[in-house]
Predict the 3D structure of the following.
Amino acid sequence: MRLVIIGAVAAGTSAAAKARRNDEDAQIVIYDKDNFISYSGCGMPYFIGGEVEDADELTPRDPAFFKSKYNVDVFILHEVLSINVHEKSMKIKNLSTGEEFEDTYDKLVIATGARAILPPIKGAENKNAFTLRNIGDMKKIKSYINEFLPKTAVIIGTGFIGLEVCENLKKLGINVTLVEKLRQVTPGLDPDMAIYVKDHLEKNGITVLTGVSATEINIDSVVLSDGNMIKADMVLISVGVRPNTAIATQAGIELGITKAIKVDEKMRTNIEDIYACGDCIEHFNIVTGSPTYRPLGSTANKTGRIAGDSVTGGDLAFRGILGTGIFQLFGMTIAQTGLSEREATELGYDIAVCHNIKPNKPEYMGGKEMVIKAVADKSNGRLVGVQIVGFEGVDKRIDVFVTAITFKAKVEDLFHLDLAYAPPFSTTKDPVMYTGMILDNAIHKGRPLMTASALKTLMESGEKYELIDARAAGQYEKAHVENAENIPHAKLRVSLKSLDKEVVAITYCNKGVTGNAAQNILINAGFKKVYNLSGGHKQYSKSMKI
C-alpha cells in the first residue's frame, strides 16, 4: 500500500506514525508546503515573550527524524496542487525548484490544517501587521520586535492565542490594547464569566476595548469603527481560523455545514480511499451530536491517530469533542468545556445554572478562590457544560468535569466521586462535588437558583418580590443588591411573619452558602417560590458590570 499524507504538522505526522506502527510494509509519504513540520503551535506565544528561548524547542522533529524512526518520507516545501480521484494521482510542485511532477496513492490522508482569518481591514498587509499561525509567522513577529523595539501594540481579537500573545508582549514591556468587536472578551465564555477575565486584564495594565472593531492599520496607529485612533507600533490580527479545504473541494470532497471537510467516525470522506483529519475537518459535539468546528492541537493529534489507524485496517473511531479549552493569563487560568449557557439556551435546553465560588484548597494552605459556572439539563439532570476562572487547580477540576460530561454523568453523580483529598490539594468536599450538590438541590430538591440576569429581568418586570440579604448588617451596609432587605440569617426565623409567603422570594449572601441556608428556612416555613441568588452578591456585582 502506498499512503500519501498532505500536511505535516500535528494530524498528518500522527497519522503517519500510527499507520507505520500498524503496517511495517506500507510506503508512507508526507508532503508539506511549509519549512517546518510537527511543531508545537501552542508554544509560539511563549517564544515571542522569551519564556521559550530557542525556537528549535518548538520544532524538535524534522524529515530526517521521521525517516529514521518511522521510515516515512517527508518532503517539505512541496505543495500538492491538485488531486485526480479517478486515477488516484496528484500534481505536486517543488517550491524550492519550481518543478512540477505527479505522484500516486492507494490511500490518501488530507491534513491541510487551517489558516488565519484576515478581516477586510485597510492596511492589514503592512509590515507591522501580523497573524500567528505557524513558525514562520512567529519568527517574523519576533524579528520585528527585536529590530524595531515597539512600545505599543494592538491585538485584534480576544481568543486564546490573542490573549496569550497579549501577556507575552506585556512581559516585554510593550503597552497592549485589545480590540474586540463583541461586547465581551473571550467569546467562548458566557458574559458573566468573561467579566472576570476583562477585570484581570485591566488589573494587569491592559487596555480593553469591546464592542468596537478595527477599520484601518497604519504604521503607527489603528483606526477604530467608532472613529477613535489608538497608537500601535505593531498589530496582531487574531480573530480565528478557517479550515484549509481548497485542495479537498477541487477533488470533489464534501464539506460539512461548518465549511470544514465532512468525515465519518473513521475519518473517511465521501470519496473512497480518501481520509481527512486535523484542523481541516468538521467534528461533532458529544452533548448534542451536532456538527461543530473547534480546531485544537489535542484534537488534531487524536484525529490524526484515528486516520492512520483506519487506513491500515484498525478499529479506532472518533467519539466527538466537547470543545474543551484552557489557557493562562497573568497567573489566572481560564477553562471551559461543553455547552455554555448561551449555547444551551439557543439550542432549546431547559437548563439549571449555578455559580460555585470556592477555594481550590483550604485557605490555611494558601487556597485561592475559583469561580465554577456549571450548566445542566433539567429534564434529565445531565451536566452539559462548565466554565472555570481561577488561579490554582483549575486544570484538575475541568478535566474531572470533561470526564463526567463525556460519560453522561448527572449532577447528583458528582457528589459521589471518590476524589483525592488532602489539605495541600483540595477541600474535604471538592469544588467539583459542591457543584454537583448545588445543581442537584436546584433540579431535584426544590432549591432553585436565580442568576443575576434573571433577577434583573424580574426587577424590571413589575412583579412583586421579596429580596432578602442574609448577611450581617455590616456587609449589607458596605454593598448590597438594589431593593434588598437585610435580614441576617440568624434573625430570619423570627422575621418570617413580616414576609409574604405568596410572592417570589430571593435570598442571597456573599457567595451562596448562607443564602441557601436562608432559602431552606423559607421553604420549610411554607413559602411558595424561593430562589437563591447564584453565586451570591459577589457574582451579582460582577454581572452588573457587563
In short: The chain has four domains: 2-39+52-113+243-311, 129-239, 325-443, 449-543.
